[in-house]
Amino acid sequence: MEEKRATYAAPREKKRKWGLIAAAVAIASIIAIGAFIAVYFIVIKPKGNKSGSGGGTSAGASSANPTSTGTPKANLAVTGGDGTMVTTDAGNTFTYKNSFGGSWYWDENDPFHNGAQANSWTPPLNQTFQFGVNKIYGVNIGGWLNTEPFITPAIYQKYSNGNPPAVDEWTLSQAMRADAAGGGINQLEDHYKTFITEEDFAQIAGAGLNFVRIPIPYWAIETRGDEPFLAKTCWTYFLKAVQWARKYGIRINLDLHALPGSQNGWNHSGRLGTVNMLNGPMGYANAQRSLDYIRILAEFISQPEYKDVIVMFGITNEPQGSTVGMDALQRYYLQAYNIVRNAGGTGSGSGPFISFHDAFFPQSQWAGFLPGADRIALDSHPYIAFGGQSNNPVSSFAQTPCNTWAANMNQSMGAFGLSAAGEFSNAIDDCGLFVNGVGLGTRFEGDYVGGGFPKVGDCSTIVDYQNWDAPTKQGYMNFALSSMDALQNWFFWTWKIGNSTAGVVESPQWSYQLGLQNGWMPTDPRQSTGKCGGQSPWNGPLQAYQTGGQGAGQIPASVTQALAWPPPTISNGGPINQLPSYTPTASLVTLPVPTYTVSSGKATTTVNAGSGWQNTADNAGMMTDIAGCSYLDPWVGQAALPPACTPAAKRDAIPEPMLTAVPPL
């Protein structure tokens, strides 16, 4: 399985009419009360929030500052189905289209009510999603809060001729900061405001989907030193996404997509270049810092106000396993697992499913990883676009997903547990503007900078979707359906591709929304069932402990001891005790919560939205510099030698806390 490899009031009446009005009001009141009772018992009460998350009883290490405010709008409907009128949080209106029995729910006086349902075959948010029984039909919201050149090409094209050119969010941020007249770094917030809106979430539910995977970068929490990213702002928009997902019954897989130092060296990690997380002289320090960010996110999403919406957490996107090594990666994964479970607890309903990317190792190498672990998933990203290229018609690829992925995915469901495709697309070649990266060429046209690929054709016709004929569209449809059936639980990459400066989408095979609009993506994902003919079927369900039931969290001591953190050595860095490291003495960062101000008669109150921190006992400090020590740049690469640290500083360093797993069920 391969990676996509890229190297957001009536007028007052006269007195004589008061008698008639009073009578009319009395009759209307009786009718309204009757209607309310009917709506309550037929619509609202069955979808009441069984978890009681609306109460907001969680506590945190400190009081978080609110980031957004919901302004009450009087006399708005709070729920509806296909054909009903929806008013967005921005005050706009549109007609909700969902022919699959889905219903939206949003009551500004009860903003944590989980009564919405994406479709008839997916439980509403106030009921348990049964992993391994209910299917994940998901789509990524890529390029929004963590930008990528090929998803939002226009904002990169604006600075593609700079010195240096914008090739990742690091250089894009630098270019924007130097361009105050052109909007400065606030252009990124303009992107957040416009690239994805509430109506996108309504359309996702209307397309028969039930999950979104939302990539988020570490700078949603903070930046340090000279890191040029726009810090913290995208978190505000992630909170909007949570509200929109709650409104339309969509569950979220939160994916930490960009880590300090880069976990893979690709542009979507924030900075194109080298791998410096679990690799090189700063590999250990960057991993320490990354684990802190995993902890901060886990504490937030484990709160009762959010855990029924954000039900999965991808802790690290696409680490380069061949670079960092399996041993160090598995130790890191176990430490992250303990951190997440320490935040939310063990067992169904206690924090999220934890998703581990396979790091491009075969799925079979993950069989038996962390036996007894509570609710873990294996994330794979199968693509065929980045290998050998072919100019054969897309119709010839109809069974490729079935023959390539189906058996492996089914076997992994039995040997590992929940296995899903966190990314896949309709691309059968690497054509498309910036698909490989800015200025890196394509394998298909033979000018890829990595070399070794002869030209097989011209990409201009491949991406000209406006002139695709019916057989071409049907070919992509068949490829999509086969992919969905082969993968079973999946997230298409991605929901939307933005226009280039030419005013068109130039990577159409990667846009689910564009495919829906133009007839090459299924309007009902269930049409995929059986396309692969049941190759090597997995006979479920998952074992009880794998979904938070009996035995959850009972990892054998021999396993945890063998994977103790930290690893003894870091790839291309050396022994762990000779590398730069941090100490846990900094003040905790707590992510801010949204605010909702509600009115009841003349009283106005603020709804309890949590504190941003679920487990008050989790109060160790954050990793920070050891006094007296010098540090390399987090993106230093592999060539530099680690700096010396004074003996006094080493004596004074506080040892890194060792997490004890929460008691198993």
UniProtKB/TrEMBL annotation:
InterPro entries named among the record's database cross-references: GH, Glyco_hydro_5, Glycosyl_hydrolase_5
One Gene Ontology CC term in the entry: cell surface
Residue span of region Disordered: 52-76
Main location: membrane
Location in or out of the cell: Cell membrane
Membrane topology classification: Single-pass type II membrane protein
Molecular-function annotations in GO: glucan exo-1,3-beta-glucosidase activity
GO biological process: cell wall organization; glucan catabolic process
Regions of compositional bias (Low complexity) in chain numbering: 59-72
Reaction it catalyzes: Successive hydrolysis of beta-D-glucose units from the non-reducing ends of (1->3)-beta-D-glucans, releasing alpha-glucose
Domain Glycoside hydrolase family: start-end pairs: 187-358
Annotated function: Glucosidase involved in the degradation of cellulosic biomass. Active on lichenan.
Name listed for the protein in its UniProt record: glucan 1,3-beta-glucosidase
Annotated organism of origin: Rickenella mellea
